[in-house]
Design goal:
Length: 359
Amino acid sequence: MSRVFNFGAGPAGLPVEVLEEARDQMLDFQGSGMSIMEHSHRGKEYDAVHQEAVANVKSLLQLDADHEVLFLQGGASLQFAMLPMNLLGAGQTADYIHTGAWSGKAVKEAKLIGKVHLAADVSKASPARIPTPGELVLTPGAAYVHMTTNETIDGTEWWDFPRTEAPLVADMSSDILSRPFDANQFGLIYAGAQKNLGPSGLCMVVIRKDLAARSPATLSSMLRYATHLEENSLYNTPPTFGIYILMLVTRWIKAMGAANLYRQNREKAAKLYAAIDGSGGFYRGTAAPECRSNMNVTFRLPGEALEEQFVKEASKQAMKGLKGHRAVGGIRASIYNAFPLAGIDALAAFMRDFQRKNG
Ligand code: PMP
């Protein structure tokens, strides 16, 4: 078996230990004679998996009793719509902080439901960045304030969250559980699982329970947070295999120690940014240094032809998925929780070598 270094933005690499465990249990989950995928979502085997997944997230995020963890479907993209459907009442305004491609999609969906105010718009800034606290113009009495804590395409990440009167809502799809933060500060957090948590097909939501009461009475059951809250995410058949993998991934984080993981994430990103900054301008980071993401390291080379060659040659050396998002081009190294240190060293060495030959 030879595994490549997967720099893909998502679905992304999973911890090898998690894949091995899932493989070992695939045909006969804990001696039950069937895989976890084949178990009823109402049976005791799956119930234990579900409970542990919720408990692991609660413990890693140090959630208080006011917050609950939900496992939903439809990806983070459904949350772009479900959020305003539930929390943006008639006549109310929702504040959105527009920082790039993904916050833009959240804005677009919210506008279909209700009134949106852009509390700041730095989406066209070059270098890419997040707004300073002074740039935020919040609406008094807003239904909520929405932010994207890590812009996966633009390569920016928030390092200080705003304190807001209205409930703060965050799309944390690309940096959930990658660093310490106060989750209880948030009214709602959502994250597609396929980068830091598990496979696609599963979206994790952390909700302050009182907010679930806001949903309009006409909203269909599957789209109401209250439904999933009341039924412990078991109103209908949940994506059981995805939740099983998330349980293993969160178990893996707990075993490693969250603090160790966070330190490792910092070190991994710092090595790549050092390679960029030490290249004398051959590699150019696309994000402002103080807003650089530890999850998605974005940079350019002198010309698109060289970028194409870079991606091609890296791929030959088992470094896959380095092509930047089609909307922005360039190079993007996505290095989520499970991305191994050895892959960082391999890429940094490749970057030096590539520059020596082509610089
Ligand atoms: N938000 C962010 C920050 C993302 O990176 C992504 C996916 N790359 C999404 C939302 C959309 O997620 P999904 O594909 O699960 O709908």
